[in-house]
Amino acid sequence: MATVEPVEAVAEAWIARRADEIWEIVADFDGLAAWHPLITSSDLVAGGVREVRTEGGGRVTEELVDSDPATMTLRYRLGDHDFPLRDHLARITVEPEQEGARVRWSATFVPTEGDGEAMRKAFAEGTFAPGLQALATARTPDAPEGTV
């Protein structure tokens, strides 16, 4: 049996916003639906596990691996899902850069069908990139309605 190499999906963006503001949004693990345009709900169902529902009717669970405010890094793994992959681990990092922040959202996984290119593209371009774009104008968890 051939060994299947892990695949990495990556999206990165510079955002004209303070890194600590972006981190506050990202670190709110069950708040994904508040800022990601493709997520209709994100609810904590158990300690560190959220159930995520998408616009297209999809449902996954994601388990928080760790969240480090000092390095502004959050890691999570997929739990229940229907994707043709295993060993999924995602990471979002926020780094101050110039008058804003560089945000990188990535995931590594091992495909269980094909070479994983379709899944890499779906995560990077179909999920991560729209989420990063939305972070530019997303409301921080404690901001009043109508403000960023």
CATH-assigned fold name of the domain at 7-28 and 62-135:
Alpha-D-Glucose-1,6-Bisphosphate, Chain A, domain 4
H and E order: EHHEEEEEEH
Largest sheet: 7 strands, antiparallel
* Distance linking N and C termini: 52 Å
Number of strands: 7
Biggest sheet: strand arrangement: 1-7-6-5-4-3-2
In the predicted model, the low-confidence regions spanning at least 5 consecutive residues are none
Shape: globular
Q: How many DSSP H or I helices?
A: 3
**What is the typical, i.e. mean, pLDDT?**
93
Protein name: SRPBCC family protein
Organism: Streptomyces tsukubensis
Pfam families: Polyketide_cyc2 (PF10604)
Summarize the structure in words.
- With 148 residues, the chain is α+β, with helices and mostly antiparallel strands.
- It has a domain at 7-28 and 62-135: 2-Layer Sandwich (Alpha-D-Glucose-1,6-Bisphosphate, Chain A, domain 4).
- Helices cover 22% and strands 43% of the residues.
- The chain contains three helices and seven strands.
- The protein has a seven-stranded antiparallel beta sheet with strand order 1-7-6-5-4-3-2.
- The longest helix has 19 residues, at 117-135.
- The protein is globular and about 45 Å long.
- The model has no long low-confidence stretch (mean pLDDT 93).
Key words describing this protein structure:
148 residues; Alpha-D-Glucose-1,6-Bisphosphate, Chain A, domain 4; 3 helices; seven-stranded antiparallel sheet
